[in-house]
Amino acid sequence: MTDVFTKKKRSWVMSRIRSTNTKMENLLAKEMKKAGVKFRRYPKIFGKPDFLIKDKKTIIFIDGCFWHKCPKCYREPKTKKDFWLPKIEKNVERDRKVNKTLKRNGYKVIRFWEHDVEKNIDKCVKRILKLLG
C-alpha cells in the first residue's frame, strides 16, 4: 500500500514528531511541580531519561505507545514493516538494557506509557509520590 501523503508532506509530518518537550512530558512536569516534586528534565544520564529526581535517585521515562510497543494500544504498521518492526524491537530491547543498567547503578526507574499520562495523570503522580516516600 502506498503512503497517503506525498513525500514532502510525509517528511513534514515526521518532522513534527518531537523527542523532547512533548505534551505528555509537559503535563507530567506541571503536575509533579504542583505536587511539590523537585526534578530535572532531560539530565545527561545513560538512557536519556525524561526526568531525574536527584535526591531520591529516581529516573522517569514517558514511553510513546507506538515507539515502545505498548501492550495495550500498539498497532503494527501496515506499511514499511521491514523498516518499522526491527526499529521498534530495538527500542524495546534498549529500554530493557537501560532499565537494567540504571537499576544496577542504584536508580529507581519509573516508566509510564503516554496513554497513562494522558488519561490517568493523578495516578501517575501518586505512583511517583509513593515511590519517593
Describe the structure.
The protein has five helices and four strands. It is globular and about 50 Å long. It is 47% helix and 13% strand. It is an alpha+beta fold and 133 residues long. The mean pLDDT is 92. The protein has a four-stranded mixed beta sheet with strand order 1-2-3-4, sandwiched between helices. The chain has one domain: VSR Endonuclease (Endonuclease, Chain A, 3-Layer(aba) Sandwich). Helix 3 (81-104) links the parallel strand 3 and strand 4 (108-113).
List the helices and strands and how they pair.
Layout: H1 7-15, H2 23-34, E1 40-41, E2 51-53, E3 58-63, H3 81-104, E4 108-113, H4 114-119, H5 121-132
Query: Please, how many domains?
Result: 1
Widest β-sheet, arrangement of strands: 1-2-3-4
Task: Tally the beta strands.
Answer: 4
Largest sheet: 4 strands, mixed
CATH architecture: 3-Layer(aba) Sandwich
What is the overall number of helices? 5
Distance between the termini: 52 Å
* Average predicted confidence as pLDDT: 92
Give the helices and strands as they follow along the chain: HHEEEHEHH
CATH class: Alpha Beta
Task: Please identify the structural class as seen in this structure.
Answer: alpha+beta
β-sheet strand percentage: 5-15%
The level of helicity is: 40-55%
Query: CATH homologous superfamily?
Result: VSR Endonuclease
Named CATH topology: Endonuclease, Chain A
Give a quick set of tags describing it.
133 residues; alpha+beta; Endonuclease, Chain A; 5 helices; 4 strands
